[in-house]
């Protein structure tokens, strides 16, 4: 099946909201005003101000103008933030329909962040979505939403395949994959053979580093807790993504993000080197092909 590329016309709304949030919070703090004081001056509720400063909502341009006037922001800063606010209130390509179904919010949030990420560090106990073949993805997604319509399954697959175009564009990926993922058969042995060949191919790309955490390695504190650390350019703070069943959790606290970075490096040191991992992918591809 061939997927048709959708043009990305705008920046990620979620990343833009986070950027606006940092800017307006910084401007407020420089004025020495509390949220309560700003609320009294502008008649904007404290809860609304708090949500905007946390990046949970994008301010309407009219509200943003009121805040920037209150904070006496320079004209250039006002123009920049108003432009970002207009863009942040648009819906991106990830919120369009795929295969006739709307992508759930918990997926669009992650894809929105991923679309702007400069680098991703992943620990997974299945093959990560960015590295999956279409056949592997189809088997995995279909089993994950057994009551989903064929349109829902195909829509999720289409989105996953489109996300992978970021790899060709130079997205930096470091992934530690639990060896169990290489032996847990998804979609049949020929599907696994194709998936192992895909991993071996990706392992040879300069922007991709793949490592396997072997069975022989002692258990670590994070086994059973897959995560992804997304890093951004332009000073945007990193985010840790933790996926649950049809839901997700995002960690933005800098201290907690650094904890996950430390855990990732611990896993990387315990894993096979990239060259050894690539050799293992090739060996398993041959074994699955012969057994099939």
List the helices and strands and how they pair.
Elements: H1 13-31, H2 35-42, H3 46-53, H4 61-70, H5 75-88, E1 97-98, E2 101-102, H6 105-116, E3 119-124, H7 134-144, H8 150-163, H9 165-168, E4 172-178, H10 180-183, H11 189-203, E5 208-213, E6 227-231, E7 239-244, E8 247-251, H12 254-270, H13 274-291
Parallel strand pairs: 3-4, 4-5
Antiparallel strand pairs: 1-2, 3-6, 6-7, 7-8
Helix pairs in contact: 1-5, 4-5, 7-8, 11-13
- Compressed to H and E, one letter per element, the order equals HHHHHEEHEHHHEHHEEEEHH
End-to-end distance, in Å? 23 Å
Strand order of the largest sheet: 5-4-3-6-7-8
Class computed from helices, strands and strand pairing: alpha/beta
Helix fraction? 40-55%
Query: Can you count the helices?
Result: 13
**Principal-axis shape:** elongated
- Output the radius of gyration: 22 Å
- The counted number of beta strands is 8
Taking all residues together, what is the mean pLDDT?
85
Query: Which stretches are poorly predicted, pLDDT < 50 over at least 5 residues?
Result: 1-10
In terms of DSSP E residues, the strand content is: 5-15%
Can you walk me through this structure?
The protein is an alpha/beta fold and 292 residues long. It has 13 helices and eight strands. It has helices spanning 13-31, 35-42, 46-53, 61-70, 75-88, 105-116, 134-144, 150-163, 165-168, 180-183, 189-203, 254-270, 274-291; strands at 97-98, 101-102, 119-124, 172-178, 208-213, 227-231, 239-244, 247-251. The strands form two sheets. The chain has a six-stranded mixed sheet, sandwiched between helices. A two-stranded antiparallel sheet has the order 1-2. It starts with 12 loop residues before the first helix and ends with a helix. Mean pLDDT is 85; it is low at 1-10.
């Amino acid at each position: 099946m061939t997927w048709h590329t959708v043009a990305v016309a705008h920046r990620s709304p979620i990343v833009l909201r986070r950027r606006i949030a940092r800017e307006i919070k910084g401007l407020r703090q420089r004025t020495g005003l509390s949220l309560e004081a700003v609320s009294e001056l502008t008649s904007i509720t404290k809860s609304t101000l708090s949500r905007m400063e946390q990046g949970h909502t994008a301010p309407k341009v009219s509200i943003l103008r009121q805040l920037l006037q209150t904070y006496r922001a320079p004209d250039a800063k006002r123009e920049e933030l108003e432009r970002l606010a207009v863009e942040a209130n648009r819906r991106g390509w990830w919120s369009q329909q795929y295969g006739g179904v709307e992508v759930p919010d918990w997926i669009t949030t992650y894809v929105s962040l991923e679309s702007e990420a400069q680098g991703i560090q992943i620990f997974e106990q299945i093959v990560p979505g960015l590295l999956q073949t279409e056949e592997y993805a189809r088997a995995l997604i279909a089993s994950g939403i057994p009551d989903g319509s064929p349109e829902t399954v195909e829509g999720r697959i289409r989105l996953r395949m489109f996300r992978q175009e970021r790899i060709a564009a130079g997205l930096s990926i470091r992934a530690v994959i639990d060896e169990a993922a290489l032996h847990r058969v998804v979609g049949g042995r020929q599907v696994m053979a194709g998936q192992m060949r895909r991993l071996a191919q990706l392992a040879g790309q300069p922007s991709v580093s793949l490592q396997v955490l072997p069975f022989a390695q002692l258990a670590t504190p994070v086994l059973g807790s897959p995560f992804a650390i997304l890093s951004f350019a332009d000073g945007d703070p990193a985010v840790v993504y933790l996926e649950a069943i049809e839901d997700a959790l995002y960690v933005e606290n800098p201290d907690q993000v650094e904890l996950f970075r430390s855990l990732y490096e611990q896993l990387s040191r315990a894993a096979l080197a990239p060259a050894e991992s690539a050799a293992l992918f090739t060996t398993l591809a041959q074994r699955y092909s012969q057994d099939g």
